[in-house]
Amino acid sequence: MIPQPPKSHPTNPPATSLSAGVSVSVTGTFTILVTDDDPGSRKSLASLLQDRGFSTLEAASGEEAIEIVRVEIVHLLFTDMHMPRMTGLEALQQVRLINELLPAILVTADVTRELMRQALQAQVYSVIPKPVNKNVVMHTMLRALQKMYGVPVDPPTTDHPG
């Protein structure tokens, strides 16, 4: 069973290990949409998420992301900011007409105060700078899923040197 968008919350789900020391309780699989015009960045992020048990969809543009959200159940959106024809925030604005509660994480190499202001205004969950750090990606995404879907997330365990 795939968790439904924000209207339903999983109850008593089994725990699934996502990365070293991090587990999240889920029912089925969350579907994450990764939008980036750079195929390397897009595939790298999608692979990271797949390796941790998430189902992923990929979009090479904002327009493609909008079309995917129209026809697929998506639980979280990662989007690059700077893409041809439509920015990540412009795409998110259109996506929110389809699914107003979809959590979104903006990824960009150009973090400025103005961009942060725009992201806050667009209710982006977080802005992650490029190049992305896989631990930051996972932590941020798990917290966004926890906030939106009520999924309990266990903090990573710390290994202390002998």
> pLDDT below 50 for ≥5 consecutive residues: which ranges?
1-25, 155-162
Rounded mean pLDDT is 83
CATH topology: Rossmann fold
Read across the widest sheet, the strand sequence of neighbours is 4-3-5-6-7
Radius of gyration: 15 Å
Compute the number of strand runs. 8
Shape: globular
CATH superfamily descriptor: Response regulator
Helix content: 25-40%
CATH architecture descriptor text: 3-Layer(aba) Sandwich
Number of helices: 5
- Please write the CATH class name: Alpha Beta
Q: What is the ordering of alpha helices and beta strands?
A: EEEHEHEHEHEHE
Distance N to C terminus: 42 Å
- What is the structural class? alpha/beta
Task: Give the DSSP E fraction (strand runs of 2 or more residues).
Answer: 15-25%
Quaternary organisation: single chain
Largest sheet: 5 strands, parallel
Task: Draw up the topology in text.
Elements: E1 15-19, E2 22-25, E3 31-35, H1 39-51, E4 55-59, H2 62-71, E5 76-80, H3 88-98, E6 104-108, H4 113-121, E7 126-129, H5 134-149, E8 153-154
Parallel strand pairs: 3-4, 3-5, 5-6, 6-7
Antiparallel strand pairs: 1-2, 2-8
Helix pairs in contact: 2-3
